[in-house]
Amino acid sequence: MSGKHFNVHEVGCCIKYFIFGFNIIFWLLGVAFLSVALWAWSEKGVLSNISSITDLGGFDPVWLFLVVGGVMFVLGFAGCIGALRENSFLLKFFSVFLGIIFFLELTAGVLAFVFKDWIKDQLKFFINNNIRAYRDDIDLQNLIDFTQDYWECCGAFGPEDWNLNIYFNCTDTNLSREKCGVPFSCCTKDPAEDVINTQCGYDIRAKGDNEQKMFIHTKGCVPQFEKWLQENLTVVAGIFIGIALLQIFGICLAQNLLSDIEAVRESCLFN
């Protein structure tokens, strides 16, 4: 009995509780993300009408919170319980799941570098598809407005992309007051204005190109994003490398703890 008791303590306590502490933070963040997502859907009435999930033509930002939160929740749970209970299955699941995520990130990075033009086309398609659904979902609307405001852009490749939206197009059948306009997030900011003029984009596309440049951003979000990426390449690369190293570190710690657990079990069998 004393031999077995001694062998139990061969499992590295520092590694064990470090993994536990790290993953409980991860798990709590996952819970927070999921809570925000469910709250957002509750506010929009999605939870009371699940079929409305498929009604949105564009991208619902809530899905991002759900996916990220779900992954963090599962990983955090497996890491926490696996480390605390010295559960080999959960620790292996944690390592493999983290490894798969790392591999997918690496693959996505390589493919994005190799197929730049295809990525650009997909990004254009994604933005234009969401432009069509701009008024369909408040979260999507806020996301587009934030993007256009942050990168000082308008549409995927220019203001004319807003012709895809039924409220902003210039067709004769469009009776909307926003006809031939753009959202306020396309407008150039006036430092003297304390209150945002949400009507600044009305009828702007009915004017000439030179006049448009005086009031709105005429560059598209795709080229502006490319420009931002080039200017901040070091920071972006540093973030991705940091995340990758963190994942590798987590896998190594889990494998180290697994080795300790297996070693203790083997020694118990021989005693």
Please describe the structure with a list of short key phrases separated by commas or semicolons.
0% strand; disordered N terminus; mainly alpha; 271 residues
Provide structural commentary:
It comes from Phoxinus phoxinus. It is found in: Cell membrane; Membrane. InterPro entries: Tetraspanin/Peripherin (IPR018499), Tetraspanin_animals (IPR000301), Tetraspanin_CS (IPR018503), Tetraspanin_EC2_sf (IPR008952). With 271 residues, the chain is mainly α. It is built from 9 helices and no strands. It is elongated, with a radius of gyration of 25 Å. The termini are close together. 24% of the residues are buried. The N terminus is likely disordered.
**Biggest beta sheet summary:** none
What is the helix fraction of residues, given as a range? Answer: 55-70%
The radius of gyration over CA amounts to 25 Å
User: Which stretches are poorly predicted, pLDDT < 50 over at least 5 residues?
Assistant: 1-9
Compressed to H and E, one letter per element, the order equals HHHHHHHHH
- Please identify the structural class as seen in this structure: mainly alpha
Task: Please state the overall shape, judged from the principal axes of the Cα atoms.
Answer: elongated
Question: How confident is the prediction overall: mean pLDDT?
Answer: 85
Strand content: under 5%
How widely separated are the two ends?
9 Å
* Number of helical regions: 9
- Total count of strands: 0
Main location: membrane
Family: Belongs to the tetraspanin (TM4SF) family.
Subcellular location: Cell membrane; Membrane
Disulfide bonds: 153-186, 154-170
